[in-house]
Hints:
Helix content: 25-40%
Radius of gyration: 17 Å
Number of strands: 10
Order of helices and strands: EHHHEHHEHEEEEEEEH
Low-confidence stretches: none
Strand order of the largest sheet: 2-1-3-4-10
Distance between the termini: 5 Å
CATH topology of the domain at 4-114 and 168-188: Rossmann fold
Mean pLDDT: 89
Strand content: 25-35%
Amino acid sequence: MARRVFFAFHYKDVAEFRANTVRNHGIVKQEEAEYFDASLWEEAKKTGDTALKRMINAAVDRTSVTAVLIGSDTWSRRWVRYEIMKSWYRNNLLVGIHINSIPGKDRQVKVVGPNPFDQLGYHIGVGGQRIELWEWSFGKWVPYGDLEGWTLGSPQPAQFRNKFFQLSVHAHLYDWVSDEGYKNFNTWIGA
C-alpha cells in the first residue's frame, strides 16, 4: 500500500544536495510525496505566518507519514518544528532521517545533527485529557507558541498523567547511509 509522505527539511540541506538525495531517490518517486519548492515557500513567507501555516496544514493533511530530513540545523528551524508538531497532532507516522552522512555538493560528509524530536515535547495534564505543547529554547523548556494544545477524546491511563514527554518517544530514527535508506525507505514508512 502506498503511503503519502510529507518531507520536512531545512532548505540549506537542499542547496547542499543532501535532502534531494532522499527526496529524489527511486523509491520515493513511486510514493506520493509532499514538499514545497522554494518559490511556493518564498511566496507564502511574504504574506505572513498565517499563510505559511495554512500551506503547511494543507500539505500535511494530505499525508500519513512525515519524514524529517535531519541536517545540522534542522532542529532549530521554526517551520520544521511546526511541521513536526502539526504532523504529530494529525497522528502521522514520524520518521527522522539523518542526512549528514550523505556527501554534499562539496563531496564532504558532516557530523550528525541534533535530533529535532528531542527539542519538542508535551505534557499530559493531571486529568489525563489535556495535552500542552513545549519546545526547548535557549536552554530551557518553554510553551510552544505556534500550535495550541488540545483535549483528548478519552483520558490517558494514570501512568501517563501529569507527565512530560519528548516527541522523540514517538519518532523512528534512521541514518540514510548506515541504515541503507535507498533500500529500506519503504519499510521505514510502513509501505
